[in-house]
Amino acid sequence: MARIWVRWSRDSWEGDLVLKTQQIIGILLVNNGGFRFLLGAVYGHNDRKRRESLWEDIARLSQIADSQHLPLLIIGDFNALLYRHEKVGGRPVQDSILYDFQRCLLISGLRGLERAGHIWTWHNKASKGRVACQLDRALGNSEWFRYYPNAVAEGLAAETSDHSPIRVGLLERATWKARPFRYNNSWYLSADYEEVVARGLLDSREGTAQFRMVHKLKQVKKGIRDWVKRRPRSSLVDKEAELREVQEALQADILCGELAAREKNLSAEVNSLRLQEEISAAQRAKCSWLKDGDRCTKFFYDVIRTRQHRNSIPRLLDGEGKLVGDPVEIQREAVRFYRDLYHQEDYPTTFPPLIPKRLVTQHGNRRLLAPIRMEEIEDIVMKADPNKAPGPDGFSSGFFRRHWGALKLPVLEAVQEFFVSGKLLKELNHTFLTLVPKKEGATSLADFRPIACCNYLYKIITHLMCRRMEGIMQGLVSRNQAAFIKGRSIAEHSLLAHEMVREFNKPGGMKACVKLDLRKAYDTVNRDFLCQLMLAMGFDERWVARVRECICSPTFSVLIQGTPYGFFSSSRGLRQGDPLSPYLFTLVMEYFTCLMDLAVHSRRMVPLFRLVHPVVSHLIYADDLLVLLRPSMGGMRALSDIMEEFGRFSGLKLNREKSRVYFSSSCPQKEERALVLGVEKGELPVKYLGVPLTVNYARDQDCQSLVEFTKKRVEGWQAAGLSFGGRIELLRSVIAGIAMFWLQSIQIPVATITKVESMCADFLWRGGIHAISWTQLCRPREEGGVGLRSLRAMKEAARVKMAWQFVSGGSLWADWMASRYLRRSNFWTIRIDGNFSVTFKAILKCRPVLQTAICRSMRDGSSTDLWLDPWLGNRSLLEYLGPLHDREASRGLKCSLIIRDGAWRPELYTFTAQLGEEIRTISIDTSQTRDTWNWAGHASSGGLGRFSFKSCYDLVRTRHDRIEDVDFIWGKGIARKLQLCSYRLMLGRLMTRDRLIRFGVPIPDSRCLLCSDEDESMAHLFLECPFAWHIWSEQCRRYLGGAGSVRDIRGILSWIRDRRGMDAGWARQARLRLSATVWHVWRERNRRLFEDLITPPIGIMHNIDFDVSVLTP
Q: Which residues form the Reverse transcriptase domain (predicted)?
């Protein structure tokens, strides 16, 4: 009997069988209107081994769909899981079981449809020992989501079966009003655009400087709108087709001057249209990390569709809990919800005496109130991301950057006017609220995060205010807070939390940590309290008045599907998206620190470590609060009272449903103590600041969120739209960035690192043959790599960075660790103890490496151990003189013993004359306030430098021989795709047929695709093949002179290098021409293999000339 049945209505659809196996049936369905799509119906085997053929069949069906640009929907019972969280109950899922399905999606470029209804599609029907899984699902390719971005896989009731049926709902987009004006960064490429903008900016009107500036923008907007309506629109597809026709005609009459001129003009038009499409798509996709890759327009559009789908609101729960889908009801409910949210509650009008720990100095206030300079504004504008979403006026920072010459004086006048008068034009502070869902399938407005899109001119003002405040925040805010304070680190906060929670597994004493969640934190801040607090902190009244104007004058409209609805003011809250908000929120949280310190000092609450200094009772990072205490009943009541008082005055109320308290195993009466606080008891590990907070060292299973983050970024159709260069950029910027944060926050197991690197390598080669090993790719370019970083080396660099931060001191984490572990011991000589934490052991193991990379900068020697600190070059005095002086070294003498009046006096101690002379060569800097450590980095860096993770990584990585001529390949001005093709050729790693055969790939014909005479190899394909050699010899004859006598790529590179001193411009052209020739020969080979298209040599040479002309400045 058949395992899979597929039925369709013949009245509406016609179906053709495309693929049929035991586990999947593929059918091409065509409806009466001509719409075609591929349907895959799946019923996977229970046996993992037998399911292997299913993954191959899915990949094959996906290739069929991609080759014909067809939408593909695959639905059914896969009998397999993608992630651990897709199973509850029973035995934990092993990663090896998940791997096959994940790899299938990586290769196929498929993504799951959003789930709705019954998400647990299978369960074992047991009343005890219940197990449930998400075995049934629907997958789609990029074409499917292009047609049906809102499609949902809805699980229906299982009834008597153990499986829930899956119904795919093709939710059409609702009809909304026209979207507001949005400036397009690609408009400047159009011929008459500059004239349109210039006319608008010339328009002048009487009024305040802010009014005049806003009026100019309105006139520009009006002019651009009219210009967009009347300008002729050229289709890129049509122009590309026209260009192909002309080029085909040229093949028949290659010397025709008219056709050649027409081809040149069309090529320029196509290139301009492609660039416009790329810039426009990149702006809408907002992928700031993709800066240096190839053209990735398909990827950008996939990102846009994903964001549109994720941010769409097809259904919403209204105030009565009823699900509504009508656009009018959705927009009405959204406006009502946020109007109520930003409405002032009955907050107290009088506040208790506020006694901050630190005050703004007179010098600090002078810095805040200093006159605004043009250089400050210009620096802000030029460093802004041009792809950031604009505010209600529609103008992004890209517009201001493009026309800064004409805008800078009006902008300066408008900004200076605000800083003098303290008043904002109401229109300038209007805000669009963009609703970003916090979870998939959100239907309650409480599950959306309102992000404020402010006008860019307003953001210039608040960026200036932030820069002024940045200089005083470090001295004003307690070290318990790490967010938005220069010089403080989220990683150090995480490390400190781990150190303190580590004590939970030790016997004796009650211990607890409380993870507190604030309800709608930014949105409910009491503005009057904030301003009163700032005055108590010593901020000048004029500065506080400016802050009040910024936060109290905004009006709002809510964006639903890109269209603004409603218009309302507010009386509480800070806007998420306003540059000023993070700094102001940090000041509000300082009041919580004041309340906690009062409770500790009055002994109402006992911190977890009261004998370790500095005493740490709590940690704050933005709105993440972690309280660490001895959980006596009185202490829990004190914390509850603090939260009550803090919420009453600040407006920030505790969200008891999401808050949790975690107790040590030795703590009695856990439920009763949690009840006093009014929150539920939780179990460690728990995620804190994005990483697992564990009692013991982090295990592989604790770090699965890093693995799953990597999977989600590299799998599916969205990442499949990236070119090879784009995939490298994704790994370098996004994956390596999040991995670096993890590595600096916890000690990640080697097993986790291996999984992440394996996934990255598979993604880079799209699940195929790894033509170049991951190890080699992780070398610098000059050593034969592409500049990726090895996670293993990054882990070692992260440890060295921790050690550097520890010896540098000054941070809360470093001072607490020194008090906890060193006490009277010296960091450089203390022995590793079994009671030390994993992190501190790792730091101590890094001492030999760290010692080679730092040096001591002396002031008076009062904080430098004479015998034990490595101040004498990279050695300590004890290392210099030997272990016979151990007894002397234990006396704790300081270098101040041999420094007098800013000069060395080694004769004051029993040193030899030779040692004394060596000591005198060390400089003393009396301008410093104290002795400090300086970072020197690797010996190759040539001296002192500023610490950076890059220099730290360079210190610990494995070094390899430098490869000659590699700078020619990676030279500036060469397109990424050309660079990477030449790079793979130089290493001998292009997958020609002879290499495919060596890898065991069955090749029916090994002959060269260009000449069909010899077996295909790299040497033959690029230099020995008559077809390719004709192209290369013509390039040499016309442009490169005697290079034609050289018969290998490295020889050609050497030949160019020997001549570049004579003519740098010629050498640059030669590099470009060499890279373009390699690329086009390889492209022609692939077009013949995969597309059955043939271009004659004259056409390829013409394409080479075109690429060189485009890339030549």
A: 417-693
